[in-house]
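Hi Y.,

Following your request, here is the sequence exactly as I used it, all 400 residues.
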Amino acid sequence: MSSTADGTRETRGPLTGIRVIELGQYISGPYAAKLLADLGAEVVKVESPEGDPMRRWEGSGTMSPQFSAYNRGKRAVTLDLKSPEGLAELLELARTADVLIENFRPGVAARLGFGPDVLHGLNPGLITCSITGFGADGPYAKRPAYDTVISAVGAMYSQVVPAETLRPLGPAFSDLLSGMSASQAVLAALHARSARPGAEGEHLEVSMVGSLIDFLTEAASTYLETGQVAGPDSRPRRAQAYACVGSDGRAFVIHMSVPEKFWTGLVAVLERPDLASDPRFATREARVRNYDALDVELKAVTERMPRQHWLDRLAAADIPHGPLNTVADLFDDPQVASMRLVEEIAGPDGGALRVPVPSTRFHRSGRPVLRAAPQLGADNGTVLGGTAAASAPITEGAGA
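Below is the corresponding structure, written out as tokens. Let me know if you'd prefer a different format.
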């Protein structure tokens, strides 16, 4: 057993011995399986002969940066699942697996011959997980499900996009959250299987829109209880969170939350005692009501000095704050750098590749050695027992 640069013990990870078959395209299914691979599971990614469409994003052959991000640490095989030979190969893989994850539209897996009933008949201990856009039934169930659509339907955009902007933005919220939900559900099912006599598996259903509702628990619960409709500034207003800019144009954030000491400390840092006596800001409730006015006052002060001046003073006063980093700033941030969350591994072309490492540390079981995403069909010869058919691709994926 060796250690990584950050001192974490380098083993095969807590999911050593768990085999996952992934029939995923784009993000949600591949991300769920990638999270399990990061924990040490052996993940076999099954692709059509043309490969996951994300391989060819940005015209980068079969290994786009986006594909690499969601498919690290996997083995890759190609199968034509519309052919008898390809289906037979998949079913043979399922006999040896602990988990099978797919993100096709509802009914596609069953129509092609590998629905959960068939799989559980072959392998009663198998855990099957279907990730769909809108769930297994309902008026939207059979629609193509991409993140933009789900983030709109699931009210995520209403929480992050100002009404005057009206444009999709940000990461693939519903893809990522449903992938996390799926991996969490798989881990729970693995635990339940280990605790039950007979080692039975089960079928899991995860929807992208449902995962958003799970995530928006505060906004959803508040509306159902009070009828209040949250918007992009509802949470920052209640949390008393502000974004400011220094005279050098560099941004930072302040989060005062509930404790009054943070407000009184901020007034002292800004050398604006008049704000404390201003009836608009005299109490937390008043500051919530007059959030926009206070935002203007804070920005008017912070723009007079460089950001680092304010960061130093806020730190000395123990006020919650931080620089507003871009991705380019992130890994040079002194705190992030100290956490050693980037590692250099061998890329698919043999060159060096810098990647973010899993942030959770297992001090006893460690984590697996990180491996780059696989080339298309790289493991056909070692994983498949028969012929990997290579003709018609699958096109009925959930699009997520």
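Residues 5-9, 387-397 have pLDDT under 50 and may be disordered.

Thanks again,
Q.
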